[in-house]
Amino acid sequence: MQITLQPREGATMAPGNAVRVHCLAGVLWITNHGDSKDRVLKAGDSAELCAAQRRYLSSVGRNEAVSFEVSGPAASISLHKVGGGAVSGGAGERLRQVLRGLRRLLD
């Protein structure tokens, strides 16, 4: 399954089985619900994701879409795009800090 997210757009994924995510273009940020081990994939990078956790996937760039491919049993993947609306409160500030750090690493 190939997915493209526009800038400031995200998606949630809760696979029923382990899947492989392969970044095709742009920079993909993967966060795990209840886990602080974020992953950042650039074009050509891949990651194996276990089935145990819900994940949030998003484009890192302000002006760059991200395309990625998810390999695994398609029936086990529940993917829902979420809009690029503003995040507020303490979670929003933490997200902005993480994104600034990621941009510094990628520049």
UniProtKB/TrEMBL annotation:
<dbReference type="Pfam" id="PF11142">
    <property type="entry name" value="DUF2917"/>
</dbReference>
<protein>
    <submittedName>
        <fullName>DUF2917 domain-containing protein</fullName>
    </submittedName>
</protein>
<dbReference type="InterPro" id="IPR021317">
    <property type="entry name" value="DUF2917"/>
</dbReference>
